[in-house]
Amino acid sequence: MSQNLFEGTAEQMSELLKCIEAHRDEAGALMPVLHEAQHIYGYLPAEVQTIIAEELGVPLAEVYGVATFYSQFSLSPKGKHRISVCLGTACYVKGSDKILEAIEKELRISCGECTPDKKFSIDSCRCVGACGLAPVMIVDGEVYGKLSAKDVAGILDGYIKD
Amino acid sequence: MINLKINGIPVSVPEGSTILQAAKIANIRIPTLCYLKDVQCVGSCRMCLVEATGARGLVAACVYPVSEGMEVRTNTPRVRKSRKTTLELILSTHKKKCLSCVRSMNCELQKLALEYNAEEDTFGTDHDLKPIDDLSASVVRDNSKCIMCTRCVAACEHQTIGAIGPKNRGYAKVIGSPYDVSLAFTPCVNCGQCVVACPVGALYEKSAVADVWGAIVDPDKQVVFFTAPSVRATLGEAFGLPVGTNVEGKMVTAIKQLGDVKCFNMDITADLTIMEEANELLDRLKNGGKIPMFTSCCPGWIKFAEHYYPEILPNISTCKSPQEMFSALLKTYYCEKHGIKPEDLYVVSVIPCTAKKFEVSRDELGHYTDTALTTRELAKMIKEAGLDFANLPDSAFDLPFGEASGAGAIFGATGGVMEAALRTASYKLGGSGAPIEFKEVRGTEGVKEAEYTVGGATVKVAVASGLGNARKVIEAVKSGEKDYAFVEIMACPGGCINGGGQPYVHDEVRNNIDLKAVRAQALYDYDSDSKMRCSHDNPAVETLYKEYFGSPNSHKAHKLLHTTYSKREKY
After folding, report:
1. Can you give the pTM of this predicted structure?
2. Is residue A72 within 8 Å of residue A112, measured between CB atoms?
3. How far apart are CA B97 and CA B445, in angstroms?
4. In Å, how far from its chain's centre is CA A154?
5. pLDDT tens, position by position, B421-479
6. Nearest CB to B571; choose among A60, A65, A69
7. Distance (Å, rounded) from C-alpha B133 to C-alpha B372?
8. In B, which residues are within 8 Å of A55 by CB distance?
9. Over the stretch B113-125, which tens digit does the pLDDT of each residue have?
10. Strand partners, B132
11. Distance between CA atoms of A30 and B277, rounded to whole angstroms?
12. B51 counts as catalytic
């Protein structure tokens, strides 16, 4: 079901089960459990959603529905280098969609996904308060501003070699 | 009581009533889309908006509670404009292939669009067509037609399956199974309650109509139909006849006019099921077999047990369903008797059920049925054949599978299998003079319990319809809280008469009558008018035992009429 291979450890699993146990009899347990699961795994793998569904007695469709409704939840793992492209109003009118497109093309994954080697993941965000530098992208907290699509490959190169 | 006025008409309703309920009492119609009685009440589609004093804007009548002195207006320019805009917004993302749609002329959206003069493309048209999921043996989903009313999701939740739900958000939102998994690979039990809940053509059965037409014109095939008990009570609805009209005679005529085909009565194998099942129950009780015994007629229930309660599979009767018993009989006994090669006999079962389509594909059952048609598909074929159904004369089922008992007919309603079994079990243990009617197990309540003295012993029984209710009964049995001897379960609320393959009934009708009860009444009337009320009195069944099986649960009967099921993963 998921595109990235699930590589959970026994420690992560026991932490997950402990968290489910703590919330088991609460009404609306699903939200806090999903939050903690994402904290444990960095994202919500299909396998983890299935375990949560079984343990809480909630249909998988509901778990998946909640996980895909809230943008804080991620269905794919995050890479070693996390790229975020601002799609806020100022960046967007300055063409940040083209920046995002260029990154997607360069890494051959879509926004929200992670490369198979787990090196990069791309996300979009809404306004980082650097509108004067629009359009901006952020890699591991480093802000790159006043970008054009042709700058992308060069910036990523620095991280690929890393 | 709360007093209010709707369009100037005074009405008194109990406190806590909604405007929609009050309007119904005042005989004022308010259009709805996402609201469906007993299934969903969320106020999300905004079709039922009305003006009400004391409210800030327009309010959703299906969820807004009445208050003392409230004045409601359901038909003002503002209300009409709002409804029209809502419809046009829905239409902007709806695949408007109305002419060839399965719901054309019977679509709730089409009807409302016409009533409110909604234009197809006021807000443009979203041409982003979504993929059609047709991998399930039973249910097809075309999300390009989905209007996000979530009635299907609510119906599935009521069944405590939850195979589908809303996923993603905003424009990306769609209804479906998790990830991009087809419904075929989920714990969906194929009951089709989502299909009959859908107001538009986004959900429908996997059609076998073309296959059946193909077999009818194939010179190498002999085509035989047999019809399930409840089809006689619902088929007429597809031709404008009132809900609850028994159209058995016209149905048989219509089927025989589809081509050179025979039409048999599936009630016969309902009777046969009772002979086998009653015998099995008595055997389990006497020889310490697994008790309670659960019925096995319903394929939705069987798949539910395989996914959710594999530990109770040994408690389920080993009897095949009446459909599978009938097909097995036809491909063996009937073929042998008439010198037909089994591969030349094309067996069509007409059923009120989408899950039977899945059942046909099960390896455990020997693939004796060639195809299963829903009541709706049969209606489609009758229309395609150009038959004037309402004015057809009556005919009788073909022999040797024509006459059956009233007990076989009531198999189509919740409690019917139980009552039929009780009739035969009482006779077997108590002889003639045993009671015929067991009214405690009748009715549309989700769970029914009764205690009977059969042959001197007290027997506790339970009947559940709707899988949420089935779950309650199973949990009570598992915890030891209940000690039933025999439990009947049907997946659809109310049983087969409310099956997922039955004619579409608009929300306006469903919200205002007890569809299950009215349809079931047609079967109970049929039973009380029958000369033969008990399965063990059926001469056709007697002949089958004499000529072929020997006795109930004989070796041959076991081979052809019984089966077992096994645990199934959810995903």
Report:
1. 0.92
2. no
3. 39
4. 23
5. 999 988 988 877 788 999 999 999 999 999 998 877 889 999 999 999 999 999 999 99
6. A60
7. 20
8. none
9. 999 999 999 998 8
10. B142
11. 43
12. no
